[in-house]
């Protein structure tokens, strides 16, 4: 085993082994957090190392024995895996800082369990990213579900338990479908290894291949939150906000998207899906999800739920981009995977600061909040504008490539769906920003949020709070442990919108597309 | 071949100046803003034609600074307006932030005007929409905030359609750099729709009259001058050789805009309808597409920015001094406000095309271009629209300044406002008396322009005469009209209804899907524990999740094992 083949093992192993010292340092919080930071900095270094290796054109693979006969348990760093691993590593470091600020400001219970589960979740996410075949991916995918369960039920309230149950029911049922799909693929081809352009041989038995594909899509579709499999995600927002931000906007949901992309691009392959005609149904489901979830978001008064529906919609941008089977659209999808991560984590971080500083959870109660949290709201505006797809923020670049890819694939209706979904984001985010800026009454009659009685609106709007907030400056609005991370991620979204090609994500996405669409 | 004047786009300098203005003292900021904008105006007029700052923006060739007579003329007038409007804004009490935002907004207008490719243009286009929304939002009441949301929705839609047009163009041609208009077919159709929203084609115009009368008076001046003009500029790029459809749309804008304008009583709403009609003249010139047509359209763009901004400034001074914006409640202001009245006269004579003022020259060019190219119907529409314009400004002048009104002890425009008024009034006269000053810089060809041919005078006299007579005859009936509905009376309730029903219907669908899948998921778990209380029971799962879930995973792995063997 050479040194470079240690990298994938360490990427999984370091956060996993950090769980132990974190658990043992229960009595000394500063030491405990030091372990988290040590692990996340090491993981970031390893991810950078992996990225460099991949961009040099090298693929690292390391076998760790066999799960079952014929299917090795193996890790492998290719461009796609490195992209996901690097993204998760960068955001874990940022989210760790934020987590410390968050749990300490709120004086949360079970902080040790929280940080341990967080590290375990990252370890399994790395496993998903670096799995060399479907079965290995599946094992980590299921473990990720388990590792995040304690975080969803963190508050141990009835609601939290109910949401946790729903979470498990959805994702584990999806897991069964994945497993069956893997078995069918293996039965037809004798291999479940990832190979750019597909494993080949699937066309030999179109029926079994189609059934296997359907099972895999439904299974991964649960975490990718394709409507109607999305029901668990809004409920999972009961978790502490850093969890919603990193896991339920990035790691967990994107492991579903990642799995789908692996199935489409690396197992079935573009050619096989074209000849079987299997991409169109997935594309339709994704397009429907984008629009339905975009509209569902409009009626959410609870900020985090609205963001969750927005995530549902955004994940399908990526899925649709993959399903279009066009190099440009796939490139856009990979860019959006990164872009959405930076923008959405920023928005969740902002929601968290709002909660920590003011205990406000509902949009209708954010009246005039800009005055109290100016820096946070500017970051929120940046994230929102990015999701709408306005220029100079990451979302514009990915939208540009996605729409262009749809046009290149002669799928103009899907291009229109991408654009329309952007308009829905404007309709969702405007009232939030407008309310925060102190124009709460301006919602009257135009925003569905303000006027929906009932639903999520447990708290009646008592209004007139616009002038009630104390005016503060960015230096005094919140602790830097909270404000720093969200400014970093908002800045990242801007960098990705202005000079995306200066980031490694760009090169990695290019490499993935070159690899997958080699023949084309 | 580094051209020392072309190292940065002029728009970027204005945006940078805006940042500084936002941070310094208000008075210093005003002086600085005026100075920088004036310097940028001079700089732009000196820029030699050429293509500068070529680069690469996320994988595509772009040109950040593309100088030709078209971009130079549009750029120069926007920069000039920036200087005038900062001075005026200071006088009318605009906040430092608003002054800074105005500069930044006009800066993005400049970025759009000097873009040499469609990607840069789209980026600047959307930034312009964001800036305009923010200007509408600032210091506004609830009604104006709602109008801001509508503005954002209109322009998001327009921006998306333009983006689609550009991407179709890219897909068809493989390049984004300007090279003779948008690709024919779908790209041009979408482009006309997207750009048409900004210029206010009839049917796409309600946002203009919905939003421009509402914000701070200084913001109205800036907004009225920039967004529609950048639209006209983009139209000239999209269909450089003209189009009968575009010419007809221009004629319709002129006549419909004027008709509605005559029926208005709110100062700024009246002027906003004149934006529609005046832009119609420019659109008509571009639609005619001959070199005289384009030259006339752009000359009219410049002249219109001058006198229309002046009119909005006059309206703003009246509103600030009297607190009244309805013509029905004004009157007799010529006596207490002679300076403002003088500015009004210059602008009104300009917009109605009186010889010696700038509108006379450029409108004559578009008239001649339409006639020479055989657009007879358009020519008559131009005549009708011009007569209507005379009626409308006779009305404005009569009700605001001339007729006997309530006694008001109001001051005239102050020093800072006057700087803005005078700065705009002088070129209105200069370009009217010496058209050659303007001809030197225009795109297209002014060789065929005959500004002082006898026929021009005859036509102007006929139009002015007809308009004056018409006003006298219509005055009594006009005074009874108020509140004429426009398409916004259809669009806005329709949009609200669409939003409500779709969120309601899809919300219902979403809940139904949720319960459906919840049931399935619950049954899956229950199946493995028929009595519902065993180790896989619903409640047991939550309480003892570790063991339960682990068993699920192990059983799955076992299943796989069996399947594979």
List the helices and strands of chain A in order: HHEEHHHHHHHHHHHHHHHH
Number of helices of chain B: 21
**Helicity range of chain A:** over 70%
Low-confidence stretches of chain A: 442-446, 448-464
The number of helical runs of chain A is 18
Global structural class of chain A: mainly alpha
How is the largest sheet of chain B built, in terms of strand order?
1-2
Q: How many strands in all of chain B?
A: 2
Helix content of chain B: over 70%
**Number of domains in the coordinates of chain B?**
3
Give the end-to-end Cα distance of chain B, rounded to a whole number of Å: 73 Å
The major β-sheet of chain B equals: 2 strands, antiparallel
- How many β-strand stretches of chain A? 2
Element pattern of chain B in H and E: HHEEHHHHHHHHHHHHHHHHHHH
Structural overview:
The complex is a heterodimer of chains A (520) and B (565). In chain A, strands 1-2 form a two-stranded antiparallel sheet. Chain A contains 18 helices and 2 strands. The longest helix of chain A is centred in the middle third of the chain and has 36 residues. About 4% of the residues of chain A have low confidence. A two-stranded antiparallel sheet of chain B has the order 1-2. In chain B, helix 5 runs antiparallel to helix 9. About 3% of the residues of chain B have low confidence.
